[in-house]
């Protein structure tokens, strides 16, 4: 006997609109997979033998030419914090330079305050377990272990103790904002 349901299936080729939509979805899904495979700025630093703590927590993107080492790192804002209870560090919203294994040169966008004066950090070199930060005429060495974690704007590497301090004192929101501190 035959089919008695009355349903007839007919093959119709995709319409051009449906084909275009399907192709667009396929392209977008492959782009999102490719973007997910892109290493983070922190992973790029590690691949050149630098610790992730050279960048603060709010990196929004980067560009790197792996053949020349020229890079740009984009941060969500300009910020500053104290490093190892001594130097004030300031990051601009864009950091540029050239990176090779154990050396960052032509650095732009990171400054250090020494006494009353601001100096641009122009080079960072890794020598074993030490990082050498150069401002051109002078330099300072710090242990790599100081940079295993990413600093945060306002509180640097010691946000826990800063939060405890803020919890013990009643500072107005305006004063906290003036200091550039982000309260979590």
UniProtKB/TrEMBL annotation:
> Keywords on this record?
Signal
Q: Which stretch is the leader sequence?
A: 1-36
Where does the record place a coiled coil? Answer: none
The record's annotation in Pfam families points to: DUF538 (PF04398)
Q: Which PANTHER family match?
A: OS05G0362300 PROTEIN, T31J12.3 PROTEIN-RELATED
Q: What protein is this chain from?
A: Uncharacterized protein
